[in-house]
Specification:
One of its GO terms (cellular component) is plasma membrane. This protein is of the alpha/beta class. Helix content is 32%, strand content 22%. The radius of gyration is 23 Å and the shape is elongated.
Length: 311
Amino acid sequence: MKRYDGRAVVDGLDLVAERGAVTAVLGPNGAGKTTTVECCEGLRSPDGGRVRVLGLDPATRARDLRPRVGVMLQDGGLPTGARPLELLHHVAAMYARPVDVAALAERLGLGSFARTSVRRLSGGQRQRLALALAVVGRPELVFLDEPSAGMDPQARRAVWDLVGELRADGVAVVLTTHLMDEAESLADRVVVVDHGRVIAEGAVRELLRSHDDRTLRFSAAPGLTLTGLAASLGGGGVPPASGAHGEHAAGEHAVHEVTPGDYVVTGHVDPHVLAALTTWCAAHDVLPYAITVGRRTLESVFLDLTGRDLR
């Protein structure tokens, strides 16, 4: 548990990260995920509960954990006057068995800005340097905060490949990210946090399956009156209920106008639902010019769990 000004920002949250696996911690801004990770890193002290990292209390055993844990912070926490390769060599010298600095610098492209001071680096360049510093000591556990934020596609792919190698080497990777495709591609297990608690967790495939892994989309004139559509798709004739932002729901189905003229049906999708949609369109003189049935994404599940409105 962690409180700020008497308000619990982390409250009864359980998080376990396994060795040789990538655990992605997802949540809206203010959900409590960063505070949770900072308590695990020893940067903040919890007000209650039990925190153990590699079996040790990070608040009292920080010296023992420091050689075994890598930390990549979003703001980097880097000395602004240093040059990247000098800094990487300096940090590597603190470890008994660091990785090869030259090879690590080459794969993350640090050589292209090796003589530039940290203060003059772009956001993506700082991220690459911060990642190199987090893994150069061969950690058993590494915390990565938005590891590919601000990177171009080539650098992002290099980061993903490196994370995959860490997993293969038996490292426990805890990853926080707002990029759902990053979590979907890298994570063995996803933990969704909101209001200081875990609201869903499991493998990506399990989360998609638990929320029905198919989705139905169609395009038509914007601003359709959706009253009755959700009910016609199934749900035992439950009267439709209007929601915010063009959402109508009935029984197990809901219909969202996600952008003007683009509609998404959530809920169980099968041939009968597709037939019911076209029947409703014909009855209301609506001509859909694109209907697609596809696999749901982690982003759509995340929005269903945490809400679609801005906080």
